[in-house]
Structure to design on (284 residues):
């Protein structure tokens, strides 16, 4: 599937700010699941951009604007080719929970088995995860049940959380947005020994009435590692196994590792921050 993404962010300040330094994770990855054909990122005031790969393999652009300014505009235009993901009969069932002991020995998985900035592994989350797991002894089935549980029992609600809200707080409130649901799902999976990571990106809402939650915005979901099969994406916000309608920007331990835009500057807080995202299908 060939998809086009437009992502626009505008910051407006009450007074002039200066010495603005920003990092952006807005460039889609190219991997076995997708190929980024093109990505154009523009910034006003005009400045020079540089890039690097972070420790999670995400492409990061960064820039500095030393001169005073009242507004910061960032636009990203990307075209991505995604490949067809697995069908229902190809889901990685059959890996039992006791096989997770083998994964624990993998050094590269340790970051995805522990607490992180926004994901807290506590007795409370462990107990809830055990209850959700029930009698399941299958890794993928257990992760799927966690996704389904969050979708059915948590309320999708804007303006009830912030980007700094912890997973333990969401478990108490039972409401939030895609970022929050991803953090809760990760906490539950990790508490059971299932490696889970946070994924940032977009998805194309193929429904006629745009009924999927979180469409026309940046989106977040999780990936779980199934021993012998690799990483599989699960979207607790929409109760879906991730397919070719999803575009990956990056992955990490939680939101802090893959926030689309982060930065610092000298000046007062913005009077507004407006974000506009659209995802369109191109041809066949």
């Amino acid at each position: 599937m060939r998809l086009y993404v437009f992502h626009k962010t505008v910051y407006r300040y009450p007074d002039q700010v200066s010495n603005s330094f920003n990092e952006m994770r807005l460039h889609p990855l190219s991997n076995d699941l997708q190929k980024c054909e093109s990505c154009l990122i523009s910034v006003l005031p005009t400045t020079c951009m540089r890039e690097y790969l972070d420790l999670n393999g995400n492409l990061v652009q960064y820039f500095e604007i030393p001169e005073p300014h009242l507004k910061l505009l960032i636009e990203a235009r990307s075209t991505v080719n995604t490949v067809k993901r697995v069908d229902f009969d190809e889901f990685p069932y059959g890996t039992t929970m006791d096989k997770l002991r083998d994964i624990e020995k993998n050094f590269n998985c340790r970051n995805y088995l522990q607490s992180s900035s926004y994901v807290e592994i506590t007795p409370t989350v462990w107990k809830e995860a055990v209850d959700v797991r029930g009698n399941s002894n299958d890794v993928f089935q257990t992760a799927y049940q966690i996704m389904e549980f969050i979708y059915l029992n948590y309320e999708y609600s804007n303006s009830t959380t912030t980007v700094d809200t912890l997973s333990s707080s969401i478990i108490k409130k039972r409401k939030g947005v895609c970022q929050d649901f991803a953090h809760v799902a990760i906490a539950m999976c990790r508490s059971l020994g299932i490696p889970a990571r946070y994924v940032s990106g977009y998805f194309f809402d193929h429904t006629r009435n745009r009924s999927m939650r979180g469409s026309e915005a940046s989106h977040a979901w999780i990936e779980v590692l199934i021993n012998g099969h690799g990483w599989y994406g699960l979207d607790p916000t929409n109760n879906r196994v991730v397919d070719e309608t999803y575009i990956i920007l990056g992955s990490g331990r939680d939101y802090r590792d893959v926030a689309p835009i982060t930065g610092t500057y000298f000046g007062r807080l913005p009077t507004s921050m407006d974000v506009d995202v659209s995802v369109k299908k191109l041809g066949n």
Notes: The longest strand covers residues 2-24. The chain has a mean pLDDT of 92. The CA atoms of residues 150 and 259 lie 22 Å apart.
